[in-house]
Amino acid sequence: MEAIISAVLGDLVGRAISFVVEKHHEQTTAEDLQRLRKLLLRISAVVEEAEGRHVTNRGMIHQASTMREQMFKGYYLLDAFRCREKKTGDEEVSRFLFAESNFNPAKRFRRLSSNTQIESTVIVRVSSQELKQVVLGLESMVVDMNEFAIFLMSYPRMYRQPYGAYLFVDKYMFGCQMEREQAISFLLQAEPPYGNVGVLPIVGSALVGKSTLVDHVCNDERVQNHFSLILLYIGNNLQDETMTTFRDHCVIKHQNISLDEEKSLVVIELLGDVDKGVWKRLLHSSERCMPHGSKIIITSRSEKVASLGTTEAVRLNYLSKEAYWYFFRMLVFGSTDPEEQPKLTSIAMEIALEMRESFIYAYVVAALLRENFSARFWCRVLRHLREHRQKNILLLGECPVDEEQPRYVWSMAKRRQGSEDIKFYLQGCHPQKGPVSHGEIPKITVMDLLSGTWSAMPRGKFEVLSWRSLIPPYYSYTTVCEFVRHESSTTA
Questions:
Q1: 113-123 tens-digit pLDDT
Q2: In the predicted model, is pLDDT for residue 297 greater than 50?
Q3: How far apart are CA 331 and CA 196, in angstroms?
Q4: 442 bridge partner residues
Q5: Which range, 28-32, 345-349, 437-441, is most confident?
Q6: Which of 230, 251, 253, 311 has the maximal Cβ count within 10 Å?
Q7: For residues 407 and 340, which has the higher predicted lDDT (pLDDT)?
Q8: So what's the pLDDT on residue 266?
Q9: Do residues 42 and 142 make contact, with C-beta atoms less than 8 angstroms apart?
Q10: Residue 27: how many CB atoms within 10 A of its CB?
């Protein structure tokens, strides 16, 4: 009997200690979240001010970029903890936002399987530690922020910038402010009296924003007031080009005849690779006919292009998951505080994790979610995104990471054509991008495919408008799709 009583008392004492520790942990986390909210308000105000000024100091640009990244991480953690505090009880949204994928991590998947209570405790503990680290990091930044803000006031404001991020997030370039200022700083830098033509390489994967960055740089008033002529060349490679044919294949992007000194900026967008021998020959020819002080920007997906520059290459990468969530939350919620809708925020965070940091997916899915602010509809979008991923793995052997890989396109339509449900489409070729003014825009959009709002279902291959950009270079992204099969099913 004494042994039983001792065991019961020991269990009760253990439970009491665990309860006290857990309450202390929850109180500490709540205090950290409150500190994080206040810090984010201060940091975001300074970051917005920095993005609205022509900052030329490389150190300040780097500091502003670091502050912005920490701000993204802070908002991600804040929203994630808010979601955990609000238990929805919905199986569609009861997943863990910080769980890593069982698949190849390069594919940016997250684990979607059920988890035990022990796993949950470990994940929460790790997340709390990460929360504390972010809070300490932001507090350290705030200590030195006064000096940064004073220096910031000495730089002139941008005209028409920045846009109200929560209102016009689709009308300005997101996440590349440091890279833009790095490129502009190189272009405005004076060249030695007898130096070679300066070359700036810009390297990045497909659809990461190389053309968008270059257009924003070329449209900057400082650049347009510095160069009398800005030319654009687009080609697979430079293999068959001479200086004469190269100039004939260029398009004039900007011309300023009022400048006293002639300087040219040549932008070369390569769709393929370039041979070093061909490049040296063309560069040597250009140096003899280009005015002193002229510059060249060359963009490519190939890392080899980085070695062709006379300065450090600008490298563009996909957004981190924290930055991507900040971008997506602004697209979806706009000026609305996500804290007011914790259940929708939880679903939106999981949807963001499913989209693999794709800008086009973000715009399309955000537009779909804004049409219907109900948790049930958002859960349905999340379910179809997961089914889309699983079907690509089953049918293609993998879920495509690159936007240009063929894939099955997911559809939420419940319509019928004849007696069969319309279920799958195959992306038959790479997305084509071009200015909106060139060519005819497809009448069918991706939104039509997702929601089933087309008037008549095309047969065979047909073009679909994936997305239409509202910022330079105003590309419209189109995809060739092909209807590949019908399914007789009554499921959604």
A1: 333 333 333 33
A2: yes
A3: 44
A4: none
A5: 345-349
A6: 230
A7: 340
A8: 94
A9: yes
A10: 10
Q: If pLDDT is split at 50, 70 and 90, which confidence band does 435 have?
A: low
- For residue 196, give both structure tokens: 């070679």
- In the sheet with 198-204, reading across from the earlier edge strand, the strands are 251-255, 229-235, 264-270, 295-300, 198-204, 314-316
- Of 41, 90, 109, residue with least CA distance to 346: 90
Residue 456 vs residues 190, 412, 441, 452: alpha-carbon distances, Å: 59, 17, 17, 10
Alpha helices in 52-144 (DSSP H): 58-85, 117-143
Instruction: Report the first-to-last Cα separation within the chain, whole angstroms.
Output: 60
Beta-carbon contacts of residue 189 (< 8 Å; ≥ 6 apart) = 198
Dihedral sign, Cα of residue 168, residue 174, residue 178, residue 183: negative
Q: How sure is the predictor about 100, in pLDDT bands with cuts at 50, 70 and 90?
A: very low
322-351: b (≥16 Cβ within 10 Å) or e: bbbbbbbbbbbbeeeebeebbbbbbbbbbb
User: Residue 410 above 70 pLDDT?
Assistant: no
What is d(CA 195, CA 352) in angstroms, rounded to the nearest whole number?
48
- Beta strand 198-204 pairing with 251-255: unpaired
Phi, psi of 197 (to 5 degrees): -65, 130
3-state secondary structure of 18: helix
- Summarize the confidence of residues 290-295 as an average pLDDT: 89
Stretch (H or E) spanning 253: strand 251-255
Burial group, residue 176, by CB count within 10 angstroms (0-12, 13-18, 19+): buried
Residues in the chain: 492
Tokens representing 250 are: 């260029």
Top-confidence residue, 244 or 33: 33
Tokens of 134: 């972010």
Distance CA 451, CA 365 (A): 11
36 phi and psi angles, rounded to 5 deg: -65, -40
